[in-house]
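Quick one, tokens below. Sequence please?
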């Protein structure tokens, strides 16, 4: 999946107010861009890090561009634009690149199954049905290990509880970790950051929720699907 416009390299000056990042571009300009990540961005946002941004002059934009990639301390690349996880998963599902979910003919996005409950990222159908919730993973712990979440995630726990109810009803329910970090080769719950999430994740697995991980390698040219990764819950 190529980026819509060529990315420009630079160095991160600072991230602040969650959604703002100052970047010193290699061409000498300093710009303030949108940071499209609501997490802590642990190990992905140190000042001075090598970063890549997309600049697009479009009507209505308050900022001239978006922070897309960062080079982590171990030399890997991570995509910090978390909304791209759903886009690359949608394209991968359509192309049959996520093997455990490749049998479905119909894909719907942002589906609410019950009034007052969460919207799930995808509802796959024909044959049967499968509810899929996508989580973007960018926290590398070293030695190929990735972890989720990078901050306490009450919302993530809520999604798991609702996926359990779906599995209990007899429908297929799946949590999909979209790993957008080139240095990660397996994923685990970040118990040291959010122990409650780890407990609920293991309960969900026991209740029949499938948990799979998909490797997506970021490059300055685009995002490349690499296949499944082990989940060590």
């Amino acid at each position: 999946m190529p980026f819509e416009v060529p990315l420009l390299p630079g160095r991160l000056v600072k991230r602040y107010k969650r959604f703002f990042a100052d970047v010193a571009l290699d061409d000498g300009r300093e710009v303030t861009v949108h940071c499209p990540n609501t997490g802590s961005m642990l190990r992905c946002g140190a000042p001075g890090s090598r970063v890549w941004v997309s600049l697009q002059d479009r009507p209505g934009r308050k900022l001239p561009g978006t922070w897309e990639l960062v080079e982590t301390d171990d030399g890997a690349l991570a995509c910090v634009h978390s909304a791209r996880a759903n886009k690359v998963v949608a394209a991968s599902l359509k192309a049959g690149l996520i093997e455990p979910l490749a049998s479905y003919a119909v894909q719907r996005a942002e589906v609410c199954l019950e009034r007052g409950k969460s919207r799930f990222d995808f509802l796959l159908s024909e044959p049967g049905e499968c509810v899929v919730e996508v989580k973007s993973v960018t926290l590398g712990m070293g030695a190929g290990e990735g972890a989720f979440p990078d901050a306490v995630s009450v919302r993530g726990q809520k999604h798991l509880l609702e996926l359990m109810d779906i599995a209990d009803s007899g429908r297929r329910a799946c949590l999909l970790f979209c790993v957008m970090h080139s240095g990660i080769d397996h994923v685990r719950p970040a118990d040291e950051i959010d122990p409650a999430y780890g407990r609920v994740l293991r309960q969900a697995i026991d209740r029949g929720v499938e948990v799979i991980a998909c490797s997506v390698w970021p490059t300055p040219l685009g995002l490349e699907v690499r296949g499944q990764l082990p989940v060590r819950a």
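The longest strand covers residues 210-219. The helical segments are 83-95, 154-168, 195-206.
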